[in-house]
Structures are given as structure tokens and as C-alpha cells.
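Collaboration report, partner site 2.

Our partner group contributed sequences for two proteins of shared interest, and the home lab folded both. The records are reproduced in the order in which they were received, starting with the first partner submission.
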Amino acid sequence: MSTLTDLLAEHTKLSGAAVDHLQLVVAEWQLLSDLSFADFLMYVPLDDHKFLCVAQARPTTAPTAHPEDVVGSEVDAEEHPQLRRAIDEQRICREEDPRWHLGVPVRRETIPVRLGTQVIAVLSRSTNLAVPRVPSPLEISYLGSAADLCQMIADGTFPAPEPSPDVHTSPRVGDGLIRLDPSGAVVFASPNALSAYHRMGHASDLVGVHLAPLTRSLIGDPFDATEVAQRIRQALDGQPSMRMEAESRRGAAVLFRSLPLRPRGQAAGAIVLCRDVTEVRRRDRALMSKDATIREIHHRVKNNLQTVAALLRLQSRRLTNPEAKEALAESVRRVTSIALVHETLSMSVDERVDLDDVVDKVIPMMSDVAVTETQVKVRREGGFGVVPAEIATPLVMVLTELVQNAFEHAYAPGQRGEVVVHSERSAKWLDVTVSDDGKGLPPGFSLERTDRLGLQIVRTLVDSELRGSLSLRRRPRGGTEAVLRVPLRGRR
């Protein structure tokens, strides 16, 4: 299905400013739909007789009048004459009698979308009349607020561009709505809004109370208290207000948004949307605390492993047996490889490792080990990408063991050569090849029967931790290559 931008670009010649304004309307019209208990369709004229539906919204507060998707469909002016009237007369137009749509009685209204002096689109508001509604204070307040906002769309004063919000979410009508008169006194508060203020510490009813000073007295942080009160007053003065979250003295977190109501330029008060997000923030803080604890554990494990490596180096210096010194050097290398993974995890927020970064740190370490006896260089080709922590450690261990195996067995002392670590990644697999240009595999070599400790470690890690496959084979032009395949599908 084409997006609003695609449809406008394909079928209209609207300016960039007009497209931006229509996108603002669509960003706000779920509020209108919920307040109106009605569906909204956005139409743009193709000519004097044809209109194209470019967007659609359904209410969460009432049954839909349009269960079918009508975006991308055309309608003739004879079928919906109020669309043409709204443009010609530049006012909200309403059908005198309901019409039947898919077996449901529907009342339609059209609202011109004005930008400056030009009507750039028309909103069709369709109300499902199949469910009888009993007028209540909530319904009267909702419909009155919707009428004011729709008139402001026809006036070209809503929605107004606002600065980037401080938070990336917004309260909805069902979260809590408060209607203020021009003086700032509450004339209606929905049950959810009342509950939010009760949780903040206000025990009595809100009707008749001036909301800005009351809200200021309930919020704990003085700066936030002043800011929220100021934004409510700005809405009463006709200025658009950014969303803001604040915490009360009792620890309740509430998200606020204030909208001015100025139909035909006349001050009619404001609406304040509020949402109690206390439990959401509590869970967020718990997750942040857990993440911080996990990162701290990785940091301490890294420090402990580095301490172990340092102790092994000290022990190695006291030994005179070459085999014992070599065994300790291999242990230092393995411990250091694991420490590098934990160092990366200590800086990660989602238990995932950028393996390219770790391998690029391991490769110089491997080259340093080889410098004393060979002139072999090692380099990386391709990209490993980001992998889950559960496979990062065994994968780095396998790579270091395979590279070290090439250093030790593929080249004679002082011989020059190159080891290449090549990786290719798809949606399902990570394929890694460690190849050398050395003397190749000895006759009768078998990976399953080898007694080399490094390759035994590799086999164990590939089978039990990585659930992958490994093979060693001769290269056609000399040397050996180890081919590793690790499954990625099913891992987060």
C-alpha cells in the first residue's frame, strides 16, 4: 500500500509546505477521531469531479464506520457532494440525512484543510450511528473539543508545527483528558485523568480548580513544576505546547500535553491530555538497573581475567622449560581473547558484540605472538557483524585457536607467509575461512583423531557452543584452510 507521501507525489502537485502540513494533520488526527467517535478520511482533489483518499483513521472510542481500507480509492463529487462544497465554501459541511454504508447508517461531515489562504485537502468525518449513544458529560466534552479542533483545521490554525518533543510518545484521549475554560479552570476531567491526579496527590475533584497552579504544587522538581504550569498557560494563550513528563512529590510519573482551543480565532480554553506512566517508568528503571549490573559484571570479569593473564606471565618468566613456557603463553592468549569479549560486553547495552571490533584487537595480538619465530602476517577480510553474547566468546576462541594453529604448524621458523581470516554473513549463516599459504596438512591427517590441544578445544566449542560445522582441507595452490559455518537463525 502506498504511503501518504507517495500518493501525494504521484497524484498531486502540492508544494512541500502543503505536504508537510498534511503530514502534520495525519500525525494528530487520531486525537480528532477519538474525540469525535468517528472515522476520518483525507481526500485530495484530482479535478473538479474526482477526489482521491490518501489517508484513513479509525476511532478507538467507538465502532468504525469504514471497516474496509479505502486509501487509494477515488470518489466522485456526485457521490460525496460535501467534498466539493467544503472546498468551494471553505467551511465545515454536514449532510442533512445519514446514509447507509455496508448496512450501517453513517453521518458524514467534511472539513476543509486550510494552509494559509488555500484549501489543500478535505477531511471526511464519518460517524457510525448503528450504536445508540446516550449524551454524557464525557461525550459532550469530547465532541465539543473535537468541534473546536476541527474548526481550527478549517481556520488553518491546527495543527501548528511544534518544536521537537522532549519525549517520543504522547498521551491519547483514553489516557486522560481535561477540558479548561479560557481562565484555566477545569470544566471536565475524564475518569483516567482524575485517577492520574489522585495518584499525584490531589484527593478531591478537579472541576472548578485552576489546573496550572494545582499541577505546579503537585510536582516534586521545582523546574519541572514551573515548566508544566507554564505550558498549560501557553495553551490557554493560544500557543502550541510540547509534550512533557514530570514526577510528583509522591513519585507518580505523568506525561502531559496541552492543546489550545481557538476556533475562528476566539479563545475557548484548552485541553490537557495526561497519562499515568508510573509503572512504565518503574519497569524502565528496573531494566536500566539490570543492564548496568550486567555491564558491571562483564567489566569485573574482564579485570579478573586480565589479572589471571598477568599472573600467568609472571609464572612463565620463572620457568626454564620451553614446553612449560609455551603452554603458559597459550593460556595467556586464550584468557586474553575471552577478556576482550567481556570488555566489549561491558560497553554494550543489549548483550551483543561487534565481532569485527574484537577480531581486529585479537589479530595484532596473534601477530605479536608469531613475530619471535616466524615472519607471518595475519589479516581480516569481510565482516562478521554483530552477534549475540552467547556465541561471541566461543567464536573468538575458535578463531584464535585456528590462527595460532596455522602459525605453529604451517610455517617453518623464520619463514614468511600470510594467514587470511575471511568471513561472509547471510541472514542464516556466518561462514568463516582461516587460510594459510604454508606447507599444508600432513599425510593422513584427521581432525577427529588429532591430539593437538588447540584443535580439540576448537572441535568442542564448535559442536557444543556454536552448534556449527568445521572442516580442514588442503588448498589447491598449497597451504591449508579451515572452513567454519555457524548458524545465526533463531539467535537474537
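Second partner submission, folded after the first:
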Amino acid sequence: MRVSKFPLVFGFPLILGACAAAVPGIYTEPKAGFSNISSQVTPAIGKRTAFAETQAENEALKKQVHAMVYRKTISADTAVQVALLNNKGLQASYANVGLSAAEAWQQSTPENPIVSIGILGIGAPELGAYRAIEGLIRSNVLDATTRKQRTAIADANFRQAQLSAVNDTLALANQTRKAWVDAVAAFEAVSYLRRAKATSDAGSELAMRLGETGALNKAGQAREQAFNAELAGQLAQARLSATRSKEALTRLMGLWGTEVDYYVPDALPALPRSVGRVTDIEAKALRNRVDLRVAKLGLEAQAKAFGLTDQTRIISDLEFIAGFEAEREIEDGETETVTTPQVEVEFAIPIYDTGKARMRKAELSYLQAANVLAERAVNVRSEARGAEASYHAAYKIARHYRDVLVPLRTTVEEEGLLSYNGMITNTFELLTDVREKLGASLEAANAKREFYMAQADLTAAIYGGGEGGGGAGGEGATLAAGGGAGH
């Protein structure tokens, strides 16, 4: 008994397989899509990023991070670089790009044919038993004819995943830079409050001594001591805030163990001498915003999905089954063999589901993606305008505190000291002048913090990574380490 089935059984799947496009090499690369991410991140924020897939790569990055932070006072740029190399959430985002590449690879690969072989009839041939061998191969025709569309959808999703990873990178950079500003500003506030507390301690001690001599009544003593107690509470709260701010920065950088033994400067950098206008900021934002490109790819993917739904609206599953059946029967000592070819086509009859509901869903999904893109474009323009306005306003306010209020308070303090030396004013008036100058310095430091926050928001409005949907870097002065040993 021989089953002659090879010409049709094996030839048809090969014909279908020939219809499939060759698998693009980009999907099969070890770090598929990452080079594209890196090439977009570096020009935007001037920092490199890395995707570690092996233990050796992780160890190498760990050594680099340790060298950058261990017992060192780090700048904002260093903090951002460490976060891009060491944040595990960012590594997970890069891994998601690999997953989307694998999905595109899978969609571009032909579906495996299903082969079935059966034996019918059991018994001794010499007793006239009937016996047949059946061999069938099943191949999904619709899989081959729609593979191009499905691969295009998967490719759009792959490109979208890359841009999402770029956006995640920019967002992390922006968050880290702002966390660094927060931490440094918090420690700068602590230093001003510590000086104010020292002045208050002197005033409280003087009030107590004058009270003992009867030169100051109880109300005056209580007033100085209450102020000193309030300032002590403010100083404790400021120290707690500084500790929390530094811990938030540590978390974004992904540090633990001995790597947390780093410092930040005691004060933010001085304000730049001037800040210029960003020309055509709306156009720059529309051209560079990564989240806007993600929305565009989402619309493209929905368009391709709509085409696939339209193509399979009526027939959602179509299979071709081919094979041969060989039968052998022995009767009266004679053997008779009959070979019969078999060809079957299987498909679902659209009696209940005519595909209209799926078409409606596809139409609405496309409409939804189009509206999301339109809204994103409007928001990007608004965020860019608002960020530039806030940036220049914050600079003017910080300049006002630095150039007007603090010098005036300094003059009051100096004149008060001269009057005190000339026995014109008393000690408590002098202490009040010192406190008010320290208060003005504290307000100036906070205004400076707001400026650097606005600077980060401006670059995020251009490239993405901000709270509205995108990153940091690029425009404006780069933050450098401030003075002092740090914390």
C-alpha cells in the first residue's frame, strides 16, 4: 500500500509561503529599534541612554553609575545621565520596544500548515480486512492574503513603541532635572533658615537676659521666644522637605546601596544675565514633539486596521485543505487499491455576523484616533506658548527679587547696624532688620527655583516629556553645580 500525495499536499503550502514577504532584518536585531531611540534622544537632551539585556551589560552600567555618584556632589546633568542609564522603569520601556518588534516578526511569518494522517480499518489483510490511509494538510488562505496588512499594522505599532520609549526617556530626563532643582532649592532654603534661626537664638537669649534685669517685660520676652519657636519648627520642616526631595531624586536615578552616598550643591546656580526669545516656538514644538508623532502613528495604525477589517468583513476565516486517500481492499485473494484526491475549502457563513459591527468599530476607532491627534496638536501649541510666557515671567520675577528687594533689605540692615553702633537704634530693631533680609533672600531663592523649573518646562514643551505629554533638554541655559560642599 502506497499513498501518493506529495505533489498537492506539499506543493500548496509552498505556494502560499511564497506569497509572504521576507522578514525585515530590523525585527530580528538583538536590540531592535533601540538605535533609533538613541539617535532621537541625544540631540534633544545631549545625553546618552543604554539598553541592558545581559548581566554583563547591567554590571558595566552599574560601574559607570557608581563612578559618577559615589560620594560626589552631582550636577543636574549628571543626575539626568545617571537616570537614563540606571532607571529600571526606562529599561522596561525599552523592553516593550523589543516586544513590539517580536510581534511584527511574528505577523510577517507565515502560519504553519497543519498536517493530519489517519489509518482506517484494523485487521489481517489475508482475512479480507478493509484498510485505508488518509493524509491531509490544512493551510489558512486568509492568513496568507492578509499578512501584508497585518505586518503593516504591526510595523506601525513597532514604530509607535519606539516613539513612546523616546517620550518616556525625555519625560524621565525632565522629571530628574526638576527633582534636582527641587532638592538643591530645598537645601538652599535650609541654609537661609539656619542663619535666621541663629539670629533668632541671639534675640531670644537677649530677651531672656533683659527680662531677668527687668529691662524687658514679659510680653516682649514672649514675643521673641515665640518667634524663635516658630522658626525652629520651620527649620525642622525645611530639613524634612530637603530629605524628601533628595530621596525623590535618588528614586528617579534608580540608586540604592552605597550609591545613595552622593551630594547635591548647597545652592542653585546664579541666574543667567539674560534670556532670549524662542522664535517660532509653536512650529518647533509641532516639529519636535514626540507625543505628537506617537498620535500620528496611532492614526496610521488605525487606518491600516480599518483596511484589514474591510478586507475581511464578510469572510473572517478561510482555510484550504488538500490531500489524498489511499484505500486497499483484499477480496478472494485479489488486492485492489484506490487512490482518491481530496480538496476542501472551509469558511464561516456570515448568517448572523455580517461584519457590519466590526466595520462600525473600525470606523469609530479611526475617528477617535483622528480626534486625539487634532486635540494633541492644539494642546502642543498651547503648552509651547504657555511655557515660553512662564519662562520669561519667572526670569523677570527672579531678577526683581535679586536686583531690587534683596539690595533694599541689605541697605536697611547696613543702616540699622550703623545706627546701632551710634546708639540710635536698639538691638531688637537690628535683629528685625537681619531677619527681614534673610526672609527676602529666601524669597529670592524660591523665585530662582521657579525660574529653573520654568526652564525645564520650556524645553519639555518643545521636545516632549513634560506633564502635558513629553521631555526635557535643549533650549535655555544648562544647570550647573552651585557652590558649597552639598548634602
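Feedback sent to the partner group on the second submission included the following. The first strand starts at residue 114 and ends at 120. The radius of gyration is 37 Å.
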